[in-house]
Specification:
This protein is of the alpha/beta class. The chain contains seven helices and twelve strands. It has one domain: Ribokinase (UDP-N-acetylmuramoyl-L-alanine:D-glutamate ligase), CATH 3.40.1190. The protein has an eight-stranded mixed β-sheet with strand order 4-1-7-8-9-10-11-12, with helices on both faces. It has a four-stranded mixed β-sheet with strand order 3-2-5-6.
């Protein structure tokens, strides 16, 4: 798979559960700063960097969450060759983000090129940020070739894609984009602190935390739900567990794992 080798050596272990994660990955940088004065040149704060924290983001964060939940997984991660970086400038005391700079998305990314059969994996997670790595046809092929698959996508989906995957995870904004399909039997809509909705039933977060930073919470939900469902075959247990894990990460700074 394109871009696979660099991370495959770091993330694969000989676990009993085989997981394939596909989708665009990035490096998340959090530059934590002080903001003690306004610029004399313009009415903007002057930021003084104090520290930089970096994490893998997007599909890379899904991988990090999987290993946080179970260190003995056997994970293969397929992502684009190009480097994408998201740099956030954050006032450390308040955790207020002043602005974000995204780099590496100005040119088309390499296309997905399958080398592994999704059917060889116990769990297939597609974290699709709709930046050109995956096409609609790729999604359909991956979903229909998998034994158990979960799709978290930022694009407008069609019926063939929806029906190809075991489960589709959407947030409220994505469900509005895909309103026609948001009530499908395999669609889970996350509702932030309110929990998640499935087949018309809302599963509230059992232990909601004070929200400090929502960065990466959707990745945590997706990874947690997929692993729990593989082990239990219970949608209810899996959503409750995923709600709990997502609640933990939003109470932390930056892109965190449970």
């Amino acid at each position: 798979m394109k871009g696979l080798q660099a991370i495959h050596q770091q993330t694969q272990s000989q676990g009993e559960i085989k997981v394939l994660v596909i989708g665009e990955s990035c490096l998340d940088l959090f530059v934590y700063c002080e903001a003690r004065r306004l610029s004399p040149e313009a009415p903007v704060p002057v930021l003084t960097p104090l520290e930089v924290v970096e994490n893998l983001g997007m599909s890379g964060n899904v991988v990090q969450n999987l290993f946080a939940l179970n260190k003995d997984l056997d994970v293969v991660h397929a992502f684009q060759e190009e480097k994408i970086t998201k740099t956030r400038y954050v006032e450390k005391k308040s955790n207020h983000m002043f602005f974000r700079v995204d780099e590496g998305e100005s040119k088309p990314v390499t296309r997905f090129s399958p080398e592994d059969n999704p059917n060889e994996f116990d769990v297939v997670i597609v974290s699709d940020y709709n930046k050109g790595f995956l096409s609609d046809e790729d999604l359909i092929q991956i979903g229909t070739s998998s034994k158990f698959s979960v799709l978290d996508s930022k694009r407008k989906l069609d019926e063939k894609i929806i029906k190809s995957f075991t489960f589709i995870k959407m947030n409220e904004g994505e469900s509005e984009l895909n309103k026609k399909f948001s009530q499908e039997d395999n669609v889970i809509v996350t509702l932030g602190a309110k929990g998640a909705k499935f087949r018309g039933h809302v599963f509230p977060s059992s232990n909601p935390k004070e929200t400090i930073d929502v960065s990466g919470a959707g990745d945590t939900f997706t990874a947690s739900f997929a692993l729990k469902y593989f082990l239990t075959s219970s949608v209810e247990q899996s959503i409750i567990f995923a709600n709990e894990m997502a609640s933990l990460v939003v109470s932390k700074r930056g892109v965190a794992t449970p």
